[in-house]
């Protein structure tokens, strides 16, 4: 189940928090209608094609997507990815003969579908986002991210510096590593969107309104 992070355990998924944070900052400064510029965002990543495909998959096209709609869409992408992974896990559990594999799949399934699992965070997150309650959004998103991370790191060598890969101790032959790597790539796009969003948000604030810019640094 979800575990809150400490400073030494933050995984790349926590960067999703910065995306929602940027969306809410935009909305608070009347910039929710800012149009997403896919090329400017994706050219700053190391996975330009993947990034473009993701952002251009927004219904209606990214050229017409504002910040607010992208925020809700991003959460729905997470829902879809989680559901697909749950379906995969159920299939893997039914067919697994390796005890290590079955243990991993059952653990991940619990992380995603438990009463406090990742999927249970989606609806409250969307509701909180609609209500512009950032504190509640971050709470639910943090728990969702933690559940994903627990699944990805289960049974791994704790000395590994790459949390999204399985160790040689257990080479998972299933598509699960590919699914988690896909989410890892998705999360690498988030800081770029967030950085651009926060910079433009700050520029939109009247100069007479003092702001502590150090508190807007994106990890």
How would you sum up this structure, described in words?
- The structure is a single chain.
- With 219 residues, this protein is mainly alpha-helical.
- It has a single domain (12-216), classed as Invertase/pectin methylesterase inhibitor family protein (Butyryl-CoA Dehydrogenase, subunit A, domain 3).
- The protein contains 8 helices and no strands.
- The chain has helices at residues 16-28, 38-42, 48-55, 67-95, 99-113, 122-130, 134-153, 176-204.
- Helix 1 runs antiparallel to helix 7 (134-153) and helix 5 packs antiparallel against helix 7.
- It is globular, with a radius of gyration of 18 Å.
- The protein starts with 15 loop residues before the first helix and ends in a 15-residue tail after the last helix.
- The model is unreliable at 4-19, 28-32, 159-168 and 194-219 (pLDDT under 50).
- Belongs to the PMEI family.
- This is Pectinesterase inhibitor domain-containing protein.
- One of its GO terms (molecular function) is pectinesterase inhibitor activity.
């Amino acid at each position: 189940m979800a575990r809150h992070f400490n400073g030494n355990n933050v995984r790349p998924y926590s960067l999703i928090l910065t995306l929602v944070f940027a969306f809410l900052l935009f909305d608070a400064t009347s910039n929710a209608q800012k149009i997403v510029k896919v090329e400017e965002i994706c050219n700053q990543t190391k996975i330009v094609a993947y990034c473009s495909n993701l952002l251009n998959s927004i219904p209606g096209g990214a050229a017409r997507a504002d910040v607010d709609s992208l925020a809700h869409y991003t959460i729905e992408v997470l829902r879809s990815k989680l559901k697909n992974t749950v379906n995969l896990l159920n299939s893997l559990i039914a067919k697994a003969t390796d005890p290590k594999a079955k243990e991993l799949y059952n653990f991940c399934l619990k992380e995603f579908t438990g009463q406090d699992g990742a999927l249970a965070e989606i609806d409250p997150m969307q509701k909180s986002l609609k209500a512009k309650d950032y504190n509640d959004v971050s709470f639910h998103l943090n728990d969702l991210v933690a559940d994903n991370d627990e699944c990805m790191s289960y049974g791994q060598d704790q000395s590994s510096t790459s949390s999204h890969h399985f160790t040689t101790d257990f080479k998972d032959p299933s598509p699960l590593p590919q699914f988690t790597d896909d989410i890892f790539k998705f999360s690498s796009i988030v800081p770029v969107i967030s950085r651009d969003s926060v910079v433009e948000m700050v520029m939109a604030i009247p100069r007479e309104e003092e702001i502590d810019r150090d508190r807007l640094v994106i990890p």
